[in-house]
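Aldo keto reductase family oxidoreductase
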Amino acid sequence: MENYYNLLYREDEWELIPICKQDGVMLMPYSPLAGGHLARPTWNSSSKRSQVDTSARSKYDYAEQQDLPIIKRVAELASSHQVKMSQIALVWRWAKGGTAPIVGTTKERYLDDAAQTTEIRLTPEEVAYLDEPYTAHEIVGALDSNPVGLLPKDVK
C-alpha cells in the first residue's frame, strides 16, 4: 500500500495502517519528509521546489502553525543526535514500522543521508516525544469519498 504518511500527516494511523498490518499488506509511504518541511528548522525555504511545488503547499501550508511544534522537536533531536533533521524524520518512520519509504531525492548526497538512517536509533521516549504534539489534520493527498460520476450506474 502506497500511502501518504509522515510526522506532519498521520491520519492513516487510525484506520488504514492497522487494517494493512492485520491483513499483511506492506506499507510503502511517500512524502516521509513532508515536502522538505521535516528537513529544515523553518517553514519556508528558498529552494526551487519550495517555490514551484504547489502540491506540497496545498498539502501542508494550511497546517503550518499546527505543525511547527513537531518541526521544532525534530530539530532538537537532530541536534542531540548530531544528525540531519531529514534523518530523524526517516528514523521515526522506521520506528513506526512499515517497509520502504519513498524518498524523493534531488541530490546524490540525500540518498547517502537516507542510507545512514539504518545506523541511527531513537528511544521509545524520543519517538513518543515526536508523536506527542500531533493533532488531527484535514484529509489531504487521498480521496475521502468516491467522486460523483465515477461509479458504475448500478452501485448506489
